[in-house]
User: What shape does this take?
Amino acid sequence: MALADEFSKYRSPLVSRYASKEMAFNFSDRKKFSTWRKLWIYLAQAEKALGLPITDAQIAEMETHAEDIDFSMAADEERKLRHDVMAHVHTFAHYCPTAAPIIHLGATSCYVGDNTDLIMLRDGFDILLPKLARVLDRLANFAEKYADLPTLGFTHYQPAQLTTVGKRASLWLQDLCMDMRNLERARDDLRFRGVKGTTGTQASFLQLFQGDHDKVEELDRMVTEKAGFKKAYLVTGQTYSRKVDIDCLSSLASLGSTVHKICTDIRLLANLKEIEEPFEKEQIGSSAMPYKRNPMRAERCCSLARHLVALMADPLQTAAVQWLERTLDDSANRRISLPESFLTADIILSTLQNITEGLVVYPKVIERHIRHELPFMATENIIMAMVKAGGNRQVSRFLSEEVHPLLEPYKAKLNVKIDLEL
Assistant: This one.
């Protein structure tokens, strides 16, 4: 019955069909709510160390139940309270009766909500960066292998001068190197929201520590360090600035643009039968046309990359409408846009790695295309030779002078137009 129910409701293809288990877990409820509990433990540990009346037994009790989350109880509590954080406070407290009075002490919902988001963003980048590095490695090997293989270059998707297969791949590599830099910067620029109180003033913590500013600052530093961050944001409202989300998702959207361009190039070359993505032994190209070798992986990358680029609009608009210290109309949007951006980036990198590990090159086809266009490509060399011999570089005048006499017998028919019925 449970299995039947699973197929009776919408499931995001990003999780059920595409993304890796590690990225799906990174944005899972289990990761989210267990991180909330760790943050409550970090807070209690730091508050105790700074002199608040919290016992070792209370902290030990919380640590014992950090992972065994009763999701059913939490869901029931949220239906009653209409507040997800307090629902989990109550659920945690039910299993930690001794620690119940000090769970979430002095904190606001964004202490767990925003700090957990920042942890997930950081960990999400840590999943993506090695995948991007693998793509760069595979593509660099490909570019080196085919560095000297001449191929027909295209501008405007019209035959142009020669380049090499490796040189073309180096264009893809250069863009991906920019993306690596952008993702590393976005990851390294992330800070912790820390312990900032309800409107970013830390007033509740100042009250707990009887106005001792040094202790409140030390509390912020200690919890930030426990969470694995070197720095916290100097100032926040109730939330960290939503421009942070813009920085993170813009680096992913830019990656999406790069991958779309690379995979579009591969699709165009597949049509020319010069280069193909890997094709499995038992893979079916088309249900009706078995001879076809459709570039399905590259097409999937393009499809998902468009979604990744489109998601960039969400953080831009969200940051623009955060009134004063915060407004809650960011929450529902961020629950979708942040995970989906990372899940989408995850699958396009995995797919692109698969493509770049098995690209197939057909040198004979490439050579045939070059030979077909050689007479046209030779015109540039002829023009350069004429200039060296003292001719005029104004090619259009030269061509007019040579071509127009050839057209003279056909002058009366040159203005005839035809309409094609499609």
Observations:
- Confidence is low (pLDDT under 50) at residues 395-400.
- The longest strand covers residues 158-164.
